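Take a record.
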Amino acid sequence: MMLVLVRMRIGVDARPLSGMRGGIGNYLHALLQALAPLSDHEFLLYSHRPIDLPANGPRWRARVRPGLLEPGPLWLQLHAPRLLTRDRVDLFWGAHFLLPLGLRRDIPTALTVYDLVPVLFPQTMQWRNYAVMRMFLRPSLRRAQHVMTISQTVADDLQRLMGIAPEGITVIPPGVRDGFVPGDPDEARRRVRDRWELSRPYLLTVGAVEPRKNLVTLLDAMARLPGQVRDRYHLVVVGAPGWKRSAVRALAAPFVRDGTVRFLGYAPDAEMPSLYAGADLFVYPSLYEGFGIPVAEAMACGAPVVASDIPALREVAGTAATYVAPTDGSAWARTIERVLGDGPLLESMRVLGLERAGALSYDRSARRVLTVLEELASSVDR
């Protein structure tokens, strides 16, 4: 197919770039940064709140239009169609699950879907978020001319559960952000010890404190570890407070009191490479992921990984990680003890993880996004 060669004005749903960025925000920010030098297209980034602009120059503009009190998804439906029409965009990229359904039909649309939590694990969502996704996700998929996703796992689920044809899906995995590289573990541990006042080596887990991240099983595993193992390590939890935290807090309470478990909350990006590199083990017990960016970042920084045995994480880490059934606390305890006690295995996991993470590239992913957008613009009659 001959790609479009004229400069386009591309609108992007940039709401994930506002506030404290999570996994989706970090992915989108890094992807847009990588896109910036690849084309002369103009990018207009739409949000209901101020955003962190990923690139500078006249071709990159934030279009922030605060609404009243409506949440972001409703703002997208109520205000984005008018803004996009007024700005005369040539194409709209719904980079956060949803499209503005009132958008003019002659404006082609691409959509990025990161996971199918609303379909597969709705019980792990806040009811407001679930209600919005239930209302708008399927219509957005029907409206999109092309769907991008971050793993083959999600692509397969879109085909199986949502009826999307395989030729209508492109898999564009995350890369590894700049700065997430294997540092000196001893220096990383000194930095982490001084910054966070940790007195022991530590196991690390990263993610919002919410049901899907399954910290309940990890805390159960900590309780089952032999005392001489548990007393040797901190379990460090990095991530913003989510919802339904009471069960996690109750299980963690005795470990928090004796200093075994440390909740650090949200950590700035600048601190994350040292936290990963200084960890004796990265543990990730998530019930479901569309990709698992923390696993990729941990491997890139040289941390050995023990992860839930779920399709997306196997897709990300391959043979570099050790896998455990997500909700089996006894198996998690046995695996953590076994891996920590096996020096050659830890070193092998580090080496394989670095190799695996090295294959992930935001430059390559940005080129795929650009190809999708340009092919879409070339194929749609305007």
Q: What stands out?
A: The domain at 9-175+361-379 is CATH 3.40.50.2000 (Rossmann fold). Residues 191 and 310 are 33 Å apart (CA to CA). The chain has a mean pLDDT of 94. The first strand starts at residue 9 and ends at 13.
